[in-house]
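W.,

You were right to be curious about this one. When I first looked at the sequence I had no strong expectations either way, so I just let the prediction run and decided to look at it fresh. Below is the sequence, 237 residues in total, followed by the output.
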Amino acid sequence: MSSIKQHQEMGYDRSAGMFSPDGLLLQVEYAEKAVKLGASTLAITTKEGVLFIGDRKIASKLLVKESFKKVFEIDTHILIAGSGVMSDGRRLIEQAQMNAQENNVKMQEPIDVLSLVKDIANIQQYYSQAGGLRPFGVKLLVGGIEGGEIKLYETAPSGIYLRFLARCVGNLSDKINESLEIEYQENIAMKDGIKLGLKIFKDALSVEEYNLERFDVVTLDLKGVIKRYSIDELKKL
């Protein structure tokens, strides 16, 4: 009998804030598993800005692809994407948008990237310990430009946040992050970063699954220009 199954039968997963004898918060562990079931999202920092490639995993030809976004604008200098239970992610993304606008109104300046990341992580951490609540089953990648510096963070269901040069979350994250460790180079050009990201996705997916139409590709450059790539533009790359 597995360790998690034993703990489950003993009731250690009944409360979000109850530790198992192994020192685990099992509800948080389950949330991490939910992230692993979600379609993958990749973010890469380049010398020109930050780029996101979100796998929309489109199954129906009837779906209007432009209506299905994996990458969201928080402010003119910050983008967010994620993987897992994206209804949970939407709640956090909307809160991030609100916090960014409140900062603009109250402080008369754009919110800094780390402050926004901390706001999101604090909400995630609170939901991992409060009674009657459950952790958010989503990991978010937050990329932004601040003072000419490119920043990329990951937040997790536990409330932890870490800064990366390139990162993938979701069902293909183990394969893709392993490939990034080998193939990613600092100061890569934006277009080369998109090519690298699509190549890594192609290697991780089967031939039948790989299709450019399933990817939502968005870039944010050092000038604050946000661009969402069309299928034709990706084919040219």
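Here's what jumped out at me. The beta strands are 41-46, 49-55, 71-75, 78-84, 138-146, 149-155, 161-163, 166-169, 215-221, 226-228. And, maybe more interesting for your project: Helices lie at 3-9, 26-36, 86-107, 113-127, 173-183, 190-204, 231-236.

Coffee later to discuss?

I.
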